[in-house]
Each structure stands twice: as C-alpha cells, then as structure tokens.
Task: structure prediction
Amino acid sequence: MKENPNIAFRRHDHRECQQHSRDAVEKLCEARKLRLTPRRRQVLEILLSSHQPMGAYDILAELNRLEPDSQTAPPIVYRALEFLLVEGMIHRIESLNAYIACSQPGHQCVAQFLICRHCERVAELETTNRKLLADAEGLGFEVDYSVVEITGVCAECREHA
Result:
C-alpha cells in the first residue's frame, strides 16, 4: 500500500501508517546493509508516533522518560538523528528546527512539506518541482538536497477557528 502523502491532515489509522514506514525502513536497511541499532530504532519510533515534528531535546526527553534508569546524553540522540537523516529515513524541518519521519524512506533528494502554523502538523508531499530541478540542471548545477517548506493553516485548524 502506498502511503497518502497528505495523511497528516486526514483521518487515518495511524498504526497502519507507522507499520508502513517501519516496513519500508526495514527493507531499506536490508537493501543497503545498514544496521538499525536499538537506539536508532527508538528514535525512529518516537518520530513515527505522530505527524508532529520534534526537536532533538524533545526526543531526548522522551527517551529518558521511556528509560528513566539510563539517562541518554544529547550526543547519542544527535548521532541517531544524523544516521536516520543521511539514510533518508527522517527529514529535518529547518523552520521548526525539528525532525519528522519520512513518509517514503530512502527518497533523499527532494522534500516538500506543508506545515500548519497552528497545530504544527506536517504533511510531506511526493510532488517535486521538476521545473526548478530542470533549471538547476540547465545551469550545470547538481542538486544534492532540496527542502521546500510551505506554512499555512490546515483544514481542521481552520474549522476550529
């Protein structure tokens, strides 16, 4: 089942959404011969828990809440986030200084997000700005990574306003 890219703004079975992402990450790790350590998996699971982006220190607080006997240090969280980011399993939302699980793990080149400025839910779009990429290519510029963040108000927040 292909995930709906706008699922963050629609009613859905979030357990199914999470399982889809878990399965995709497992396949990605297997194909790339990557090691998804327990700590990396925990960080990913925390990010998969909702469509809300989370800051590194929020993730750290959640890890320490889940395991109160072993206080995790910030560098451990940042290393896990870096691995997940580099491998295309999560994205960094620059404007919020936060991270969110990728709806299509492994697609690293282009990321586009709709960000509700009220509830801060984020939807990842699968569409790409082909014109922008073609223009860059026409100038001899090789795009490594592109992030587009569009801020507005989701339908649910507009409804409650």
